[in-house]
Amino acid sequence: MVRKAPRKPRLRSVSHGSLPKRTAHTYVLPAGDPLEGLVLDAASVMPLKKVFADGGRGVWLYQGNCLEVMDALSQRFPEGVADMVFADPPYFLSNGGITCHAGRIVKVDKGAWDRSRGPELNHEFNRAWLERCQRILKPNGTIWVSGTHHVIFSVGFAMQQLGMKILNDIAWEKPNPPPNLSCRYFTHATETIIWAAKGEKAKHVFNYELMREIAGNRQMKSVWRILPPENGEKAFGKHPTQKPVAIVERCILASTRPGDLVLDPFLGGGTTAVAALHAGRKCVGIELEEEYLRMSKSRIVAEGKQVRATLF
Ligand SMILES: C[S@@+](CC[C@H](N)C(=O)[O-])C[C@H]1O[C@@H](n2cnc3c(N)ncnc32)[C@H](O)[C@@H]1O
Protein backbone atom coordinates (compact mmCIF):
# COMPACT_ATOMS: atom_id res chain seq x y z
CA MET A 1 0.00 0.00 0.00
CA VAL A 2 1.36 3.43 -0.91
CA ARG A 3 1.16 5.75 2.06
CA LYS A 4 0.62 9.43 1.35
CA ALA A 5 3.32 11.80 2.57
CA PRO A 6 2.03 14.02 5.37
CA ARG A 7 0.87 17.44 4.25
CA LYS A 8 3.45 20.18 4.72
CA PRO A 9 2.33 22.19 7.71
CA ARG A 10 2.35 25.97 7.63
CA LEU A 11 4.56 26.90 10.52
CA ARG A 12 3.26 29.80 12.53
CA SER A 13 5.06 31.41 15.40
CA VAL A 14 1.88 32.14 17.39
CA SER A 15 1.08 30.01 20.38
CA HIS A 16 -2.30 28.94 19.03
CA GLY A 17 -1.00 25.60 18.06
CA SER A 18 1.07 26.16 14.91
CA LEU A 19 -1.15 23.87 12.90
CA PRO A 20 -1.16 23.23 9.17
CA LYS A 21 -3.15 25.56 6.96
CA ARG A 22 -6.54 24.22 5.96
CA THR A 23 -6.85 23.11 2.36
CA ALA A 24 -9.08 20.80 0.34
CA HIS A 25 -8.53 17.19 1.36
CA THR A 26 -8.00 14.27 -0.93
CA TYR A 27 -8.66 11.62 1.69
CA VAL A 28 -10.54 8.42 1.01
CA LEU A 29 -14.28 9.01 1.06
CA PRO A 30 -15.97 7.67 4.17
CA ALA A 31 -17.57 4.27 3.87
CA GLY A 32 -20.62 5.43 5.77
CA ASP A 33 -22.13 6.18 9.13
CA PRO A 34 -21.10 3.45 11.59
CA LEU A 35 -24.19 4.19 13.67
CA GLU A 36 -26.70 3.99 10.79
CA GLY A 37 -29.81 2.12 11.95
CA LEU A 38 -28.27 1.39 15.34
CA VAL A 39 -30.87 0.03 17.79
CA LEU A 40 -30.31 0.64 21.49
CA ASP A 41 -31.11 -1.81 24.25
CA ALA A 42 -34.83 -1.80 25.16
CA ALA A 43 -33.91 -0.65 28.68
CA SER A 44 -32.12 2.46 27.39
CA VAL A 45 -32.81 5.65 29.28
CA MET A 46 -32.54 7.87 26.24
CA PRO A 47 -33.51 7.20 22.62
CA LEU A 48 -30.82 7.73 20.00
CA LYS A 49 -31.46 10.58 17.61
CA LYS A 50 -29.40 11.41 14.55
CA VAL A 51 -29.23 15.20 14.42
CA PHE A 52 -26.75 15.74 11.61
CA ALA A 53 -25.19 13.69 8.84
CA ASP A 54 -22.79 14.68 6.09
CA GLY A 55 -21.64 11.47 4.40
CA GLY A 56 -19.55 13.44 1.90
CA ARG A 57 -17.32 14.89 4.59
CA GLY A 58 -17.84 12.03 7.02
CA VAL A 59 -19.44 13.77 10.00
CA TRP A 60 -22.33 12.33 12.01
CA LEU A 61 -23.81 13.80 15.19
CA TYR A 62 -26.10 11.95 17.57
CA GLN A 63 -28.10 12.99 20.59
CA GLY A 64 -27.94 10.27 23.20
CA ASN A 65 -26.29 8.90 26.29
CA CYS A 66 -22.78 7.90 25.22
CA LEU A 67 -22.76 4.84 27.51
CA GLU A 68 -25.76 3.35 25.75
CA VAL A 69 -24.61 4.33 22.29
CA MET A 70 -21.14 2.82 22.78
CA ASP A 71 -22.71 -0.40 24.11
CA ALA A 72 -24.70 -0.74 20.89
CA LEU A 73 -21.67 0.20 18.77
CA SER A 74 -19.45 -2.44 20.35
CA GLN A 75 -22.12 -5.07 19.71
CA ARG A 76 -22.17 -4.12 16.04
CA PHE A 77 -18.36 -3.90 15.78
CA PRO A 78 -16.88 -6.37 18.29
CA GLU A 79 -13.38 -5.81 16.84
CA GLY A 80 -13.64 -2.05 17.32
CA VAL A 81 -14.60 0.73 14.95
CA ALA A 82 -12.87 3.97 15.97
CA ASP A 83 -9.23 4.79 15.21
CA MET A 84 -9.19 7.44 17.90
CA VAL A 85 -11.37 8.78 20.70
CA PHE A 86 -11.19 12.32 21.98
CA ALA A 87 -13.06 12.68 25.27
CA ASP A 88 -13.57 15.80 27.33
CA PRO A 89 -15.80 14.37 30.04
CA PRO A 90 -17.67 16.20 32.81
CA TYR A 91 -15.08 17.64 35.22
CA PHE A 92 -17.36 17.44 38.29
CA LEU A 93 -16.38 20.93 39.35
CA SER A 94 -19.74 22.74 39.41
CA ASN A 95 -20.16 22.59 43.16
CA GLY A 96 -20.73 26.13 44.34
CA GLY A 97 -17.14 27.39 44.03
CA ILE A 98 -16.27 30.76 42.53
CA THR A 99 -14.07 31.88 39.69
CA CYS A 100 -13.25 35.01 37.75
CA HIS A 101 -14.86 35.51 34.36
CA ALA A 102 -14.37 38.65 32.26
CA GLY A 103 -13.19 40.48 35.38
CA ARG A 104 -16.25 39.46 37.45
CA ILE A 105 -16.64 36.97 40.26
CA VAL A 106 -19.03 34.23 39.12
CA LYS A 107 -20.25 30.93 40.55
CA VAL A 108 -18.84 27.81 38.91
CA ASP A 109 -21.97 26.27 37.41
CA LYS A 110 -21.50 24.70 34.03
CA GLY A 111 -24.68 22.64 34.18
CA ALA A 112 -26.28 19.62 35.86
CA TRP A 113 -24.00 17.29 33.86
CA ASP A 114 -20.97 18.76 35.65
CA ARG A 115 -22.09 18.27 39.30
CA SER A 116 -20.03 15.93 41.43
CA ARG A 117 -21.68 12.87 42.97
CA GLY A 118 -18.73 12.12 45.25
CA PRO A 119 -15.37 10.53 44.42
CA GLU A 120 -16.57 6.90 44.31
CA LEU A 121 -19.54 7.49 42.00
CA ASN A 122 -17.52 9.89 39.83
CA HIS A 123 -14.85 7.21 39.44
CA GLU A 124 -17.46 4.57 38.65
CA PHE A 125 -18.78 6.78 35.88
CA ASN A 126 -15.27 7.41 34.51
CA ARG A 127 -14.52 3.72 34.47
CA ALA A 128 -17.86 2.97 32.81
CA TRP A 129 -17.39 5.30 29.85
CA LEU A 130 -13.65 4.54 29.49
CA GLU A 131 -14.36 0.81 29.36
CA ARG A 132 -16.79 1.42 26.52
CA CYS A 133 -14.32 3.65 24.68
CA GLN A 134 -11.75 0.88 24.97
CA ARG A 135 -14.20 -1.60 23.42
CA ILE A 136 -15.08 0.58 20.46
CA LEU A 137 -11.43 1.40 19.67
CA LYS A 138 -9.73 -0.65 16.95
CA PRO A 139 -6.85 -2.81 18.29
CA ASN A 140 -4.23 -0.12 17.56
CA GLY A 141 -6.48 2.81 18.36
CA THR A 142 -5.75 5.49 20.95
CA ILE A 143 -7.73 7.71 23.27
CA TRP A 144 -7.09 11.27 24.43
CA VAL A 145 -8.85 12.49 27.57
CA SER A 146 -8.68 16.06 28.83
CA GLY A 147 -9.44 17.23 32.33
CA THR A 148 -8.49 19.27 35.36
CA HIS A 149 -7.34 17.81 38.69
CA HIS A 150 -11.02 17.25 39.60
CA VAL A 151 -11.27 14.35 37.20
CA ILE A 152 -7.96 13.49 35.58
CA PHE A 153 -6.49 11.35 38.38
CA SER A 154 -9.59 9.17 38.40
CA VAL A 155 -9.35 8.91 34.59
CA GLY A 156 -5.69 7.86 34.78
CA PHE A 157 -6.43 5.29 37.49
CA ALA A 158 -9.37 3.87 35.54
CA MET A 159 -7.15 3.56 32.46
CA GLN A 160 -4.65 1.55 34.51
CA GLN A 161 -7.45 -0.63 35.93
CA LEU A 162 -8.63 -1.33 32.38
CA GLY A 163 -5.18 -2.28 31.13
CA MET A 164 -4.79 0.65 28.75
CA LYS A 165 -1.25 1.79 27.98
CA ILE A 166 -0.62 5.41 28.96
CA LEU A 167 1.54 6.98 26.25
CA ASN A 168 1.85 10.60 27.39
CA ASP A 169 0.33 13.14 29.71
CA ILE A 170 0.20 16.45 27.92
CA ALA A 171 0.15 19.67 29.92
CA TRP A 172 -1.97 22.21 28.08
CA GLU A 173 -0.57 25.53 29.26
CA LYS A 174 -2.99 28.46 29.03
CA PRO A 175 -1.00 31.63 28.37
CA ASN A 176 -3.62 33.91 29.99
CA PRO A 177 -5.45 32.05 32.77
CA PRO A 178 -8.03 33.80 34.97
CA PRO A 179 -6.50 35.20 38.18
CA ASN A 180 -6.88 33.28 41.42
CA LEU A 181 -9.30 35.39 43.44
CA SER A 182 -8.61 33.90 46.86
CA CYS A 183 -4.84 34.50 46.61
CA ARG A 184 -4.44 31.26 48.56
CA TYR A 185 -3.42 29.06 45.61
CA PHE A 186 -1.29 29.30 42.48
CA THR A 187 -3.25 30.42 39.42
CA HIS A 188 -4.55 27.32 37.66
CA ALA A 189 -2.84 27.59 34.30
CA THR A 190 -2.84 24.05 32.92
CA GLU A 191 -5.13 21.20 32.01
CA THR A 192 -3.95 17.66 31.45
CA ILE A 193 -4.63 15.55 28.39
CA ILE A 194 -3.81 11.87 28.81
CA TRP A 195 -3.00 9.93 25.65
CA ALA A 196 -3.39 6.15 25.96
CA ALA A 197 -3.50 3.10 23.72
CA LYS A 198 -6.27 0.52 23.87
CA GLY A 199 -3.96 -2.05 25.45
CA GLU A 200 -0.33 -2.90 26.26
CA LYS A 201 0.23 -4.65 22.92
CA ALA A 202 -1.29 -1.97 20.71
CA LYS A 203 0.93 -0.58 17.94
CA HIS A 204 -0.26 2.98 18.10
CA VAL A 205 0.14 5.54 15.31
CA PHE A 206 2.40 8.49 16.03
CA ASN A 207 3.06 10.92 13.19
CA TYR A 208 6.44 11.85 14.58
CA GLU A 209 7.76 13.78 11.57
CA LEU A 210 4.68 15.95 11.31
CA MET A 211 4.79 16.80 15.03
CA ARG A 212 8.49 17.58 14.74
CA GLU A 213 7.82 19.89 11.82
CA ILE A 214 5.03 21.68 13.71
CA ALA A 215 7.41 22.13 16.66
CA GLY A 216 9.95 23.91 14.43
CA ASN A 217 12.12 20.88 13.60
CA ARG A 218 12.56 19.78 17.19
CA GLN A 219 10.99 16.88 18.99
CA MET A 220 7.63 18.07 20.21
CA LYS A 221 7.45 18.38 23.99
CA SER A 222 4.54 17.29 26.14
CA VAL A 223 3.85 20.89 27.17
CA TRP A 224 1.55 22.59 24.68
CA ARG A 225 1.11 26.33 25.00
CA ILE A 226 -2.14 27.06 23.23
CA LEU A 227 -4.56 29.97 23.52
CA PRO A 228 -8.18 29.41 24.58
CA PRO A 229 -10.80 29.24 21.79
CA GLU A 230 -10.63 32.24 19.46
CA ASN A 231 -13.71 34.49 19.11
CA GLY A 232 -14.48 32.92 15.74
CA GLU A 233 -14.82 29.53 17.44
CA LYS A 234 -17.64 30.97 19.55
CA ALA A 235 -19.52 32.60 16.67
CA PHE A 236 -22.40 30.12 16.98
CA GLY A 237 -22.74 30.16 20.76
CA LYS A 238 -20.53 29.23 23.67
CA HIS A 239 -20.09 25.97 25.44
CA PRO A 240 -18.99 26.54 29.06
CA THR A 241 -16.02 24.19 28.73
CA GLN A 242 -15.24 24.61 25.04
CA LYS A 243 -11.77 23.45 23.97
CA PRO A 244 -9.67 25.24 21.35
CA VAL A 245 -9.86 23.53 17.95
CA ALA A 246 -6.05 23.75 17.80
CA ILE A 247 -5.64 21.29 20.68
CA VAL A 248 -7.94 18.62 19.33
CA GLU A 249 -6.59 19.07 15.81
CA ARG A 250 -3.07 18.44 17.07
CA CYS A 251 -4.17 15.26 18.89
CA ILE A 252 -5.85 14.03 15.70
CA LEU A 253 -2.90 14.87 13.46
CA ALA A 254 -0.50 13.19 15.87
CA SER A 255 -2.28 9.88 16.16
CA THR A 256 -4.42 9.14 13.10
CA ARG A 257 -4.17 8.82 9.33
CA PRO A 258 -6.22 10.72 6.74
CA GLY A 259 -9.72 9.23 6.48
CA ASP A 260 -9.59 7.60 9.94
CA LEU A 261 -12.62 7.70 12.23
CA VAL A 262 -12.54 9.83 15.38
CA LEU A 263 -15.28 9.43 17.99
CA ASP A 264 -16.15 11.94 20.69
CA PRO A 265 -18.56 10.64 23.36
CA PHE A 266 -18.92 14.11 25.01
CA LEU A 267 -19.07 16.34 21.95
CA GLY A 268 -20.23 19.55 23.68
CA GLY A 269 -20.12 22.42 21.18
CA GLY A 270 -18.63 20.33 18.37
CA THR A 271 -14.90 21.11 18.67
CA THR A 272 -13.79 17.58 17.80
CA ALA A 273 -15.97 17.49 14.69
CA VAL A 274 -14.52 20.80 13.47
CA ALA A 275 -10.96 19.63 14.21
CA ALA A 276 -11.57 16.35 12.37
CA LEU A 277 -12.81 18.26 9.34
CA HIS A 278 -9.69 20.43 9.37
CA ALA A 279 -7.53 17.33 9.51
CA GLY A 280 -9.47 15.35 6.89
CA ARG A 281 -10.71 12.67 9.27
CA LYS A 282 -14.23 11.30 9.81
CA CYS A 283 -16.07 12.01 13.03
CA VAL A 284 -18.93 10.63 15.09
CA GLY A 285 -20.02 12.93 17.92
CA ILE A 286 -22.38 12.03 20.76
CA GLU A 287 -23.89 14.60 23.10
CA LEU A 288 -26.81 14.72 25.57
CA GLU A 289 -27.88 18.33 25.17
CA GLU A 290 -29.84 19.59 22.19
CA GLU A 291 -28.55 23.15 22.62
CA TYR A 292 -24.93 22.05 22.18
CA LEU A 293 -25.78 19.86 19.21
CA ARG A 294 -27.39 22.86 17.52
CA MET A 295 -24.19 24.80 18.07
CA SER A 296 -22.07 21.92 16.74
CA LYS A 297 -24.20 21.63 13.64
CA SER A 298 -23.89 25.36 12.86
CA ARG A 299 -20.12 25.19 13.27
CA ILE A 300 -19.80 22.22 10.93
CA VAL A 301 -22.02 23.79 8.28
CA ALA A 302 -19.98 27.00 8.48
CA GLU A 303 -16.74 25.01 8.07
CA GLY A 304 -18.10 23.54 4.84
CA LYS A 305 -18.82 27.01 3.51
CA GLN A 306 -15.32 28.20 4.38
CA VAL A 307 -13.63 25.28 2.64
CA ARG A 308 -15.82 25.79 -0.46
CA ALA A 309 -14.85 29.47 -0.45
CA THR A 310 -11.14 28.52 -0.44
CA LEU A 311 -11.65 26.02 -3.22
CA PHE A 312 -13.62 28.08 -5.74
C1 LIG B 1 -16.63 19.06 29.08
S1 LIG B 1 -17.97 19.13 28.01
C2 LIG B 1 -17.27 18.89 26.39
C3 LIG B 1 -16.89 20.18 25.71
C4 LIG B 1 -16.33 19.99 24.30
N1 LIG B 1 -15.04 19.36 24.32
C5 LIG B 1 -16.24 21.29 23.52
O1 LIG B 1 -15.11 21.69 23.13
O2 LIG B 1 -17.27 21.93 23.32
C6 LIG B 1 -18.81 17.64 28.32
C7 LIG B 1 -20.11 17.46 27.55
O3 LIG B 1 -20.56 16.12 27.79
C8 LIG B 1 -21.98 16.10 27.77
N2 LIG B 1 -22.37 14.86 28.48
C9 LIG B 1 -22.36 14.62 29.81
N3 LIG B 1 -22.72 13.35 30.07
C10 LIG B 1 -22.97 12.76 28.86
C11 LIG B 1 -23.38 11.45 28.46
N4 LIG B 1 -23.61 10.49 29.36
N5 LIG B 1 -23.52 11.20 27.13
C12 LIG B 1 -23.27 12.17 26.21
N6 LIG B 1 -22.90 13.42 26.53
C13 LIG B 1 -22.75 13.73 27.84
C14 LIG B 1 -22.38 17.42 28.46
O4 LIG B 1 -23.66 17.82 28.07
C15 LIG B 1 -21.28 18.36 27.98
O5 LIG B 1 -21.69 19.12 26.86
List the helices and strands and how they pair.
Elements: E1 49-54, E2 59-63, H1 66-76, E3 82-87, E4 98-101, E5 104-107, H2 119-136, E6 137-147, H3 152-161, E7 165-173, E8 190-197, H4 208-214, E9 223-225, H5 245-255, E10 261-264, H6 271-279, E11 282-287, H7 290-311
Parallel strand pairs: 2-11, 3-6, 3-10, 7-9, 10-11
Antiparallel strand pairs: 1-2, 4-5, 6-8, 7-8
Helix pairs in contact: 1-2, 2-3, 5-6, 6-7
The structure holds S-adenosylmethionine.
S-adenosylmethionine binds at residues 65-67, 88, 90, 113, 239, 241-243, 265-266, 268-269, 271, 286-289, 292.
The CATH architecture category equals: 3-Layer(aba) Sandwich
Q: CATH H-level name... which superfamily?
A: Vaccinia Virus protein VP39
Uncertain residue ranges: 1-17, 23-30
Number of strands: 11
Calculate the mean pLDDT score and round it. 87
Rg result: 19 Å
- Listing every helix as H and every strand as E from the N terminus to the C terminus, the arrangement reads EEHEEEHEHEEHEHEHEH
CATH class: Alpha Beta
The proportion of residues forming helix, as a percent range, comes to 25-40%
How would you describe the shape?
globular
